[in-house]
């Protein structure tokens, strides 16, 4: 049953007149009468008794009117709650991110954005490649800061290229080179970072096959393991920022990068405040060193 028909019924009962109810609701009298006839047809029995003195509820109408009023009140409550949720969502931007980006980029990005938009909150969730993309797909976040992955039907906004570096134990002999040919990783014990970083690393390795040791530790532990001679690895420049004093970190040959950016389900579906956050992020990053 249409809500407007139920609302018209309640108003007709309260005023005792189709004419007065029509005036209050902005309908013509004939239009409101047609709605009541249609409602009674839908229900299957008369709700109103018409007379020269106006209208009143039938016996059946008296039984169902309280339930109709409860239904209308519930509808009003639902609409208010939806409006409240939408209002809160408009004031909060939900962001998924890798830990490295959350540590090195997001604090400054959020600070500058909040300076311009003090009433907008930014909620950050950190996760792996698979997690942050899944959150976007399931609408648990508005966007994710991540490395570009093929497939998934996401819209992609490029931000920066993050160079991948070979991470080698102290004293590793580079043979006078300033970079490490990827081929030299063949057969070496290789500490593969967890949290999905392996997707970017495997592209950099190409056909080279080191002795891969899967790990379930964070980037800091990988660096410490390399420092203690437990293997070599590949990490990005952003991940290594401020943490490369005790290892040898050099570019790969041929050079390799992971493309960092923002993934969203659809640019067209983004709320205005989320689009503004992306636009200002691109502007701010132009002045933040990688």
Please give the alpha-carbon distance between the first and last residues. Answer: 59 Å
Estimate what percentage of residues fall within beta strands. Answer: 15-25%
By CATH reckoning, the class of the largest domain would read Alpha Beta
If you consult CATH, what is the topology of the largest domain?
D-Maltodextrin-Binding Protein, domain 2
Mean pLDDT reading: 87
Family: Belongs to the LysR transcriptional regulatory family.
Domain HTH lysR-type: 1-58
Keywords: DNA-binding, Transcription, Transcription regulation
Pfam families: HTH_1, LysR_substrate
Written account of the structure:
- This protein has 290 residues and is an alpha/beta fold.
- The protein folds into three domains: 3-89, Arc Repressor Mutant, subunit A (Orthogonal Bundle); 94-159 and 260-285, Periplasmic binding protein-like II (D-Maltodextrin-Binding Protein, domain 2), CATH 3.40.190.10; 161-258, 3-Layer(aba) Sandwich (D-Maltodextrin-Binding Protein, domain 2).
- Helices cover 45% and strands 23% of the residues.
- The mean pLDDT is 87.
What are the SSEs and their pairings?
Blueprint lengths: L2 H13 L2 H8 L3 H15 L4 E4 L2 E4 L1 H33 E6 L1 H6 L1 H11 L4 E6 L2 H9 L5 E5 L7 E14 L11 E2 L7 E4 L5 H8 L5 E4 L4 H9 L5 E4 H4 L7 E6 L3 E8 L7 H14 L5
Parallel strand pairs: 3-4, 3-5, 7-11, 8-9
Antiparallel strand pairs: 1-2, 5-12, 6-10, 6-11, 6-12
């Amino acid at each position: 049953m249409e809500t407007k028909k139920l609302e018209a019924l309640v108003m007709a009962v309260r005023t005792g007149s189709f004419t007065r109810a029509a005036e209050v609701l902005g309908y013509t009298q004939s239009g409101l009468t047609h709605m009541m006839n249609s409602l009674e047809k839908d229900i299957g029995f008369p709700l109103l008794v018409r007379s020269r003195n106006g209208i009143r509820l039938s016996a059946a109408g008296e039984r169902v009117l309280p339930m109709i009023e409860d239904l209308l009140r519930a509808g009003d409550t639902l609409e208010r709650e939806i409006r409240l949720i939408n209002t809160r969502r408009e004031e909060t931007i939900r962001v998924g991110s890798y830990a490295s980006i959350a540590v090195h980029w997001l604090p400054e990005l959020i600070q500058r954005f909040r300076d311009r938009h003090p009433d907008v909150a930014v909620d950050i969730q950190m996760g792996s490649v698979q997690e942050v993309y899944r959150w976007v797909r399931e609408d648990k976040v508005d966007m994710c800061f991540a490395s570009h992955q093929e497939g998934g039907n996401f819209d992609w906004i490029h931000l920066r290229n993050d160079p991948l570096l070979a991470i080698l134990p102290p004293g590793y002999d580079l043979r006078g080179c300033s970079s490490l040919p990827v081929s030299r990783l063949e057969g070496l014990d290789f500490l593969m970072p967890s949290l999905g970083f392996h997707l970017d690393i495997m592209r950099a390795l190409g056909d080279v096959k080191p002795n891969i040791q899967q790990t379930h530790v964070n980037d800091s532990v990988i660096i410490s393991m390399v420092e203690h001679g437990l293997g070599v690895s590949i990490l990005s420049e952003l991940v290594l920022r401020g943490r490369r004093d005790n290892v040898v970190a050099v570019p790969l040959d041929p050079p390799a990068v992971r493309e960092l950016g923002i993934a969203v389900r659809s640019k067209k579906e983004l709320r205005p405040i989320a689009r503004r956050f992306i636009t200002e992020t691109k502007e701010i990053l132009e002045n933040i060193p990688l």
